[in-house]
Amino acid sequence: MSIEVATRLQYIRKKNGLSQRELAKRAGVTNGTISLIEQNRVSPSVGSLKKLLECIPMSLAEFFTFEVEVERSVVSRRADMPNLGNESIEFYLAGSSVKDRNMGILREVYQPLSDTGPEMLEHEGHEGGVVVSGQIELTVDGVTWLLDPGDSYYFESRLPHRFRNPSAEHLCEIVSANSPPTF
Question: Which region is the signal sequence (predicted)?
Answer without folding.
Answer: none
